[in-house]
Amino acid sequence: MATFGRLLSVTRHRVGAVCVRRLTATLHRNMSAYTFESLAVTTPREHVMQVELNRPEKRNAMNRAFWSEMVDCFQAIAAEQDVRAVVVTGAGKIFTAGLDMGDMMGTVFVEGAEVP
Questions:
Q1: Cα–Cα distance, 86 to 44 (Å, whole number)
Q2: Which of 14, 20, 86, 114 is the most buried (most CB within 10 A)?
């Protein structure tokens, strides 16, 4: 986790070794809660979390897993007392192409249902 190492080196210069050890322990304990299929969560700097839509091969199209994981992710972030800002980004060339219609087809369209 290159971002984590960069965070520690920057933080070490700002707050000293004692605070870095406490921050390291907190991040190691909490980052295990941020393992997702369609999201990548990092801490690029102190008090900031980055949530990256991580399906660049599908242009970060939002599938069922994304919607479920987004709720879980932001509930976990809301419990973090040290987080003051969240930056949402997209991996690859674009932020998102929108809904993954192939994956969402069964959820959005029910066979035999009438369209108003």
A1: 10
A2: 20
Residue type at 41? Answer: V
**Residues 60 and 94 sit within 8 Å (Cβ to Cβ):** yes
Condensed to tens digits (0 to 9), the pLDDT of residues 77-110 reads 999 999 999 999 999 999 999 999 888 776 656 5
- Cβ–Cβ under 8 Å, residues 56 and 17: no
Residues shown for the chain: 116
Distances (CA, A) of 83 to 40, 46, 78: 16, 8, 8
pTM listed for this prediction: 0.65
State whether residue 102 is helix, strand or coil: helix
Give the strand pairing for 39-45 and 48-53: antiparallel
User: Maximum distance among all alpha carbons in the chain?
Assistant: 65
